[in-house]
């Protein structure tokens, strides 16, 4: 036993200088990448810097940002939520089905459904001590199954303008409402992180859960909260998607899982938890969005997008992961 | 006891229950349908078993099947190009699958990233490769000899079903008598001890991932032959079904336990369940949700006693 303790101390001591270099790298790299990307796209096509194209880009980034903001909380406490995209798809079906009865309030109902689904996943993860990727992989199947059954595997159309508020342009500046909603979610999370001790709790649970528990951090509650907010964000993203496609479908958001994970890790949030934040996630989402625009400007076949997401996820995870946390890598 | 006899008993119970509930279920034709429709799932689940034995997981099945399926469709006689490599096309597609598996293994062991992240990324890469190969025009296989493998019957079963049976036998032999199989179990049981005992953990992990990738490639080839054309969605939904089958059969996600035979029992359970539920009139869409619950419940049941010991689970 004593050997093991010595061993631990040894690793920590060796890790400190390395960690500083890594932290420095993680802090500035995403921002630099974003600036370089924007400059590259602007050089290739100067029209990209016109306010109108920038606002269109912001509009298209909104659902991604909402999903990523929630999923980032789960990753920050060291777990992962692979179900966000499937949950957003399921919620899109519910929004489309409920709009005739509830009007615009259908989105709120979907947010509540998403939050409940997230809470269930969090509770299974915390109570049964099952790794979060298994719980949320199972959840992914359950939510898409429910979405398929509820919609009879068909696209559900939405009539009328009760969801117009979520996909319109506001004021003379023509600011997209979806981007404002997404920004609102990000600002809300940032405010909670800034004005309450919650941020430190998340980071403590993500960095060293046993130590956090001994220090009196409500670790189980923090994890439950993370999964619940992640689910609620998925519900909101489902609503935003319905507003822009005028329909809900059981596979509507499924292709967003990889971009969401890519945005979070490219922004510099470590998949091992304890390091990251909402600002980084916003930067990560912007990187992914500008990258998409850049690819189409460069005339790259859009089917290559998936390959790029795959490479980005693996590359960014390998750069940001904290390997000292693992005795063996499964 | 429950671990050894539970899954076969469940299979027997399911068959009995469906036989009572549906006269259609208890016919020879339906038995042949079940075996034929289990063939692809059996092949990929045998591959997945070697990864699960390591204690790792593989989420790349859909991507690998898509890439292999499209490449085999483009390399056999088809409506898109003048290439017709015959049997070599199948070898090439399986080899492509093995390359994806090798990438999974190398990325996980050399970059030291959890396998669920690497394989998720590799799956996206596979889907991307398949989409590029698809190129907007669906490649349709025009060789009648190839179609014969999916349609023609030998002893009442399609030839692909015999391919699957052969893969299962080879899988059992690899698991029992080669280092890939035996070390996979050792590594999954206690990776640190295996490394201290001189097992080249990284090498044998990579080999297990490569073997699995080759079998996903073969699965993609089989689906493409069944459909008669290459599509990007060749493996859609198969990844989770394979995980369900393995877990239900008694191959634990925590590694070191189970094996090819257990997984095949799981494949039969999942296939009988799908077949029987359709015959008694349950929507096939419900099955996806049921599979999700089954996996989480199975993992919860097997790890419940360890709950207190594993205080920190991410």
TrEMBL record, chain A:
Membrane topology per the entry is: Multi-pass membrane protein
GO function terms (MF aspect)? transmembrane transporter activity
- Which residues are listed as membrane-spanning? 24-48, 54-75, 82-99, 105-127, 134-155, 175-195, 224-244, 256-275, 282-300, 306-322
The UniProt entry's GO CC annotations, sorted and at most eight, read: plasma membrane
Name the InterPro entries for this protein.
ABC_transp_permease
Q: Which domain of life is it from?
A: Bacteria
- Subcellular location per the Swiss-Prot or TrEMBL entry: Cell membrane
Q: Which UniProt keywords apply?
A: Cell inner membrane, Cell membrane, Membrane, Transmembrane, Transmembrane helix, Transport
Q: Which Pfam families match?
A: BPD_transp_2
Kindly provide the name given to this protein in its UniProt entry: ABC transporter permease
Q: Which organism is it from?
A: Cryobacterium adonitolivorans
Automatic annotation (TrEMBL), chain B:
Gene Ontology MF annotations: transmembrane transporter activity
- Chain ranges passing through the membrane: 37-56, 85-107, 119-137, 157-175, 206-225, 231-253, 260-283, 289-306
Query: Which keywords belong to this entry?
Result: Cell membrane, Membrane, Transmembrane, Transmembrane helix
Protein name in the entry:
ABC transporter permease
Location in the cell:
Cell membrane
Q: What does the entry list under GO cellular component? A: plasma membrane
Q: Which organism is it from?
A: Cryobacterium adonitolivorans
According to its record, how does it sit in the membrane?
A: Multi-pass membrane protein
């Amino acid at each position: 036993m004593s050997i093991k303790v010595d061993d631990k101390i040894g690793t920590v001591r060796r890790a400190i200088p390395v960690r500083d270099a890594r932290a420095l790298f993680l802090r500035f790299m995403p921002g630099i990448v974003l600036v370089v990307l924007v400059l590259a796209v602007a050089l290739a096509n100067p029209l990209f810097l016109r306010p109108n194209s920038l606002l269109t880009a912001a509009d298209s980034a909104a659902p991604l940002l909402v999903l990523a903001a929630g999923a980032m909380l789960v990753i920050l406490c060291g777990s992962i939520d692979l179900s966000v995209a499937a949950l957003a798809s399921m919620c899109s079906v519910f929004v489309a089905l409920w709009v005739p009865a509830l009007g615009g309030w259908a989105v709120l109902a979907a947010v509540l459904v998403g939050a409940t689904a997230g809470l269930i996943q969090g509770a299974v993860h915390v109570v049964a001590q099952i790794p979060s990727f298994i719980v949320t992989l199972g959840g992914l199947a359950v939510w898409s199954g429910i979405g398929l059954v509820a919609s009879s595997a068909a696209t559900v159309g939405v009539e009328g303008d009760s969801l117009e508020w979520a996909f319109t342009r506001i004021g003379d500046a023509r600011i997209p409402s979806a981007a404002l909603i997404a920004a609102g979610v990000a600002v809300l999370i940032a405010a909670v992180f800034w004005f309450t001790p919650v941020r430190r709790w998340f980071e403590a649970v993500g960095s060293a859960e046993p130590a956090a528990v001994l220090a009196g951090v409500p670790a189980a509650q923090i994890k439950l909260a993370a999964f619940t907010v992640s689910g609620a964000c998925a519900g909101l993203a489902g609503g935003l998607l319905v507003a822009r496609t005028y329909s809900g479908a059981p596979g509507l958001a499924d292709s967003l899982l990889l971009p969401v994970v890519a945005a979070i890790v490219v922004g510099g949030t470590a998949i091992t938890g304890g390091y990251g934040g909402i600002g980084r996630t916003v930067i990560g989402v912007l990187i992914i969005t500008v990258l998409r625009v850049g690819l189409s400007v460069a005339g790259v076949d859009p089917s290559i997008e998936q390959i790029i997401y795959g490479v980005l996820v693996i590359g960014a995870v390998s750069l940001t992961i904290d390997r000292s946390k693992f005795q063996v890598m499964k | 006891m429950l671990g050894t006899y539970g899954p076969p008993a469940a299979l027997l119970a399911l068959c009995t229950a469906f036989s009572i509930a549906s006269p259609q279920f208890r016919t020879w034709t339906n038995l042949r349908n079940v075996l034929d429709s289990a063939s692809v799932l059996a092949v990929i689940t045998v591959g997945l078993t070697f990864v699960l034995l390591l204690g790792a997981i593989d989420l790349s099945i859909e991507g690998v099947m898509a890439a292999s399926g499209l490449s085999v469709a483009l390399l056999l006689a088809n409506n898109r190009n003048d290439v017709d490599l015959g049997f070599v096309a199948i070898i090439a597609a399986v080899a492509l699958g093995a390359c994806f598996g090798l990438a999974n293994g190398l990325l996980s062991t050399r970059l030291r990233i959890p396998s669920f992240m690497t394989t998720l990324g590799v799956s996206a890469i596979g889907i991307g490769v398949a989409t590029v190969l698809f190129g907007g025009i669906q490649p349709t296989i025009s060789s009648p000899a190839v179609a014969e493998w999916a349609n023609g019957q030998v002893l009442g079963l399609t030839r692909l079903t015999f391919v699957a049976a052969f893969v299962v036998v080879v899988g059992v032999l690899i698991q029992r008598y080669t280092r890939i199989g035996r070390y996979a179990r050792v590594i999954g049981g206690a990776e640190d001890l295996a490394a201290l005992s001189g097992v080249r953990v990284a090498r044998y992990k990579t080999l297990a991932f490569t073997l699995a990738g080759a079998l996903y490639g073969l699965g993609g080839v089989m689906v493409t032959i069944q459909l008669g054309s290459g599509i990007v969605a060749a493996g859609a939904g198969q990844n989770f079904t394979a995980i369900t089958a393995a877990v239900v059969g008694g191959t634990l996600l925590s590694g070191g336990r189970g094996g090819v035979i257990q997984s095949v029992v799981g494949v039969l359970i999942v296939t009988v369940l799908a077949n029987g539920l359709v015959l008694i009139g349950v929507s096939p869409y419900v099955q996806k949700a049921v599979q999700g619950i089954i996996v989480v419940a199975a993992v919860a049941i097997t790890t419940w006693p360890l709950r207190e010991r594993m205080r920190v689970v991410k």
